[in-house]
Design a protein that fits this description.
389 residues, nine-stranded antiparallel sheet, 32 strands, binds beta-D-glucopyranose
Amino acid sequence: MYKSIKNAAVLSAAILSLGACNQASKSNQQKMTDSTSQQAKIPDSSGFEKNIDGKQTHLYTLKNKNGVEAAITNFGGRLVSLLVPDKNGKIVDVVQGLSSIDGYKKAGSSYFGALIGRYGNRIAKGKFTLEGKEYTLFKNNGPNTLHGGKVGYDEVVWDAKQIDSTTLQLTYLSKDMEEGFPGNLTIKVIYHLGDDNGLNISYEATTDKTTVVNLTNHAYYNLNGAGSGTILNHSLQILADNYTPVDSTLIPTGKIEPVKGTPFDYTKPATIGSRIGDANEQLKNGKGYDHNFVFNKHADTTAVVKVVGDKSGIEMDIYTEEPGIQFYSGNFMQGTNTMKYGKDDFRTAFALETQHFPDSPNQPNFPSTVLKPGQVYKTSTEYKFSVVK
Ligand code: BGC
């Protein structure tokens, strides 16, 4: 049943993009640096049909009544495309991604669009102690562990079930001691595309041994359209009076410091590029923005982040139950991957990863990421789209 929904959705996406595709001349394709010049379309599903370790992967499409579409693959639970209208009603793909699973595998350490776990962000020196026992993880980021270790949830095949045309359920059993983390963790993630043009990602997990959990999504956005050039002129606002400064390996020092008077003050809207080049030790450590912002007290009905594409007028508002967010300004993008619309050039997309703070298992003054048997890990984040004229 869900397969036929999937096929119907893929077909309608194909019909929608057919006219645009036929018109796309070669020179047109080369001019992808212009604002929203991409011919927005969901990639052909054939690049996502694969059997990996005995499990089948697909590309699933969600569509709401306004015609907004999201494409997700169960390989790493990745958000591949998100098609939303700009201020002129033109459909724009705001997610930077690739056209096939092979492409995603090749670009592995960038985590494009992926679900991240068991522990999103860094754990210092690949070690933590829980209930008196020390656990050792694989160090995949200099001296530290990043985004789950050697094979995180971004590289595994999730079991997928399309509930209806706007809802996809992904489940995964992360085994006891997988990547060095204790406990069998049973995880359910639901992607839901609302008629308010909000993409909601909800996460739920239970364990049979005390463990640590920090799940997030690592989509890279360019609100002018993926492949349309720099994100430095996007306007950004983050309701965070504080952030967690880091050392040169991007591990928090443990302090929670005010943003006031620093380039990290986004309490009022400012462009991403306005202070990114300032002489500032923290910006030097991150090679730009690659920091955890600590949200002010908020209800999950408050948009804690607002980003606006300068050319498209597309606004993305983020609502979350998480206490923090990693703002990563694409500093390690090097143009080495062939994406859906050109290369992944320096700072042509940003990630905003809602999360508990980096290295919390080793930082007693940060909110706890410990999950015990009998408890339910439950959190959700919504990315809502509208236009500013
Ligand atoms: C990290 C960056 C890293 C990026 C891609 C972000 O979450 O904070 O340091 O380069 O993911 O791996």
